[in-house]
Design goal:
Pfam families: TetR_C_33, TetR_N. This is TetR/AcrR family transcriptional regulator. It comes from Micromonospora humidisoli. With 194 residues, this protein is mainly alpha-helical. Helix content is 71%, strand content 0%. The protein contains eight helices and no strands.
Length: 194
């Protein structure tokens, strides 16, 4: 295969890696195969990714950035009503978690690895939005006062549980919107100040 200069090789490799991740999972990702798909020499990807783990980390980092962008857009579009904002963020998170399940798994497992501080920093964006949303609900009297991490963990566990059920084919994907609405409504009722 002829070797040639590729103008945006890093982006091309990341896009191909994300497609491969969706189809085959992280275990099948290969720098050599991605190079073949991009039409470059098998050594060319190493200019951008020192090894396979560096590629996986770059994918996870891009995933956190995209999740942050999608959650922020959902918040902006929802307006100022806290309930609407919470529903919008939950729906956006679950859309991401069910459409990109393999990427989400890579993002979460990657950030707990030793030496992955850059992934922890990347995760701070989207999870900071959720944290701030909980604080917003507390300030408006919509959520019980107290440590925001407590309510945030309950909300996140609920959303992650729903994603796991959908991704494991235990709940049909077409039921996701209704389940999300029900879960957020129940969260709001349960977390309301007494």
């Amino acid at each position: 295969m002829p070797t040639y200069h590729h103008g945006n090789l890093r982006s091309t490799l990341l896009a191909a890696a994300e497609r491969s991740l969706r189809q085959h999972g992280a275990g099948q990702l290969s720098l050599r195969e991605l190079a073949r798909e991009a039409g470059v020499s098998h050594a060319a990807p190493r200019r951008h990714f020192a090894d396979r783990q560096a590629l996986l980390d770059a994918l996870a980092e891009a995933g956190f950035a995209r999740l942050h962008t999608e959650l922020r857009a959902a918040l902006t579009d929802a307006g100022t009503d806290f309930g609407a904002r919470l529903h919008a963020v939950a729906a956006a998170y679950l859309r991401f978690a069910t459409e990109d399940a393999a990427l989400l798994e890579l993002m979460f497992t990657g950030k707990h690895r030793e030496g992955a501080e850059h992934l922890v920093a990347a995760a701070a964006g989207p999870f900071g939005l959720l944290h701030d949303l909980i604080i917003e609900g507390q300030a408006q009297g919509m959520l019980e006062p107290g440590p925001p991490d407590r309510a945030g963990t309950v909300l996140f566990a609920t959303l992650q549980g729903i994603a796991t059920l959908v991704n494991g084919n235990l709940v049909a994907a077409e039921l996701l919107d209704g389940i999300t609405r029900t879960a957020v409504d129940q969260f709001l009722r349960g977390a309301r100040p007494r």
